[in-house]
Specification:
The protein is α/β, with parallel strands linked by helices and about 170 residues long. The protein has a 7-stranded mixed sheet with strand order 1-7-6-2-5-4-3.
Length: about 170
């Protein structure tokens, strides 16, 4: 398990870009965190790092969005499982059809997508708050605590980015 503290949204995107450097086709990334924790912000950085087409935005209402690669790298499949109510709905997305060819990032995926593959990267994002909603109102500011947990043989020897990935 690796924990990284990121000071703001820009650092979260930069960390996502660095993380994209270790991702490859077939990788499943499961994002967990409260509303406003930075799941989409991190995925935006991953999209930039993978050099995919289109603006990465929360796919809450479309559930899943595919961002094709602009170059030789993998596409990004960005899923928001927040509105899903059953494993049948997850299965209907047919994520396993593109899993081998793309990096699949699933927001709110904990408890829904672990059965897709034995190997995955689980990322929890937290935003410590001082007891007010002010931090949530300004998504650009505020520290994020990112905890990365690797599952499966794919991740055994992968050097995940640390706090220095967003320096300077």
């Amino acid at each position: 398990m690796t924990e990284v503290r990121l000071p703001d949204a820009d650092a979260t995107r930069a960390f996502g870009r660095a993380l994209a450097g270790v991702l490859r086709a077939g990788d499943l990334v499961v994002l967990t965190g409260d509303l406003g924790a930075g799941k989409t912000t991190l995925t935006q950085g991953i999209g930039v790092g993978l050099e995919v087409r289109g603006q990465v935005a929360s796919p809450t209402f479309v559930i899943a969005r595919v961002h094709p690669a602009l170059g030789a790298g993998p596409a990004l499949v960005h899923v928001d499982a927040y509105r899903l109510g059953s494993l049948d709905e997850v299965d209907a997305l047919d994520l396993d059809a593109s899993l081998d060819e793309a990096v699949t990032v699933v927001e709110w995926g904990e408890g829904w997508v672990e059965g897709l593959t034995e190997d995955r990267l689980e990322i929890t994002l937290q935003r410590p708050r001082g007891g007010t909603m002010d931090d949530l109102d300004d998504a650009a500011t505020g520290e994020r605590i990112v905890t990365l947990t690797t599952v499966g043989a794919r991740w055994a020897d992968v050097d995940l980015p640390g706090p220095d990935a967003v320096a300077g």
